[in-house]
Structure prediction request, 167 residues.
Amino acid sequence: MELKDIMAISGKPGLFKFISQGRNAMIVENLENMARTSAFATDKISALEDIAIFTAEAEEPLKKVFQAIFELENGAEAISHKSSQDELKNYFVKILPEYDKDRVYVSDIRKLIQWYNILCRLELLDFTDEKEEDSWTDKKENSTEQKKTGEKKSSKTTVGKKKDEKK
Prediction:
C-alpha cells in the first residue's frame, strides 16, 4: 500500500484507508483493528503522502523520513511514541538532523513515530527503489511514443559521429 492510500484524521487515533464515499462523509477503515467509521467534511483528513517535515532549508517528505527510520532500525519498529520528550528529540536528530526545532513539536514527532510503528507492524512500508519506478515509467513512455509515431527508439546511447556522417 502506498502512502497516498493511507490517511490520518485529526482527532481520531491511528491510520485509516479509504473504503467508500458516502453522501455526506467518507467511509474509512482503521488499519489496526479494521473498524469502519465515517470521516465527515468537517474532519481534517490528510494523506500521508501529502505530509512533510520542516527542515532548515526546505520540507522533507514523510516517505523519506520513514525510510530513514527504516534504515536506522533495519526494518524493525522504532522507539515507543510514549517515550520521554528528550528521548524522542534525540532519536529524531538521528533520523533527520536538520529538522526545524522551532516548527516541529514533540507532539509531531510522537505522531510520526506512532505512524511508522503502525505501518511497520502491519508490514505496509514499501521502499522500492525509485530508480526502478523511473525506468518503468520511461519504458512505458517510450512504448507510448513508439505507438504514436510508429518508430522504435534505440535504448543505446551513442557517442561521437554516426557512420554515414562525413568528416
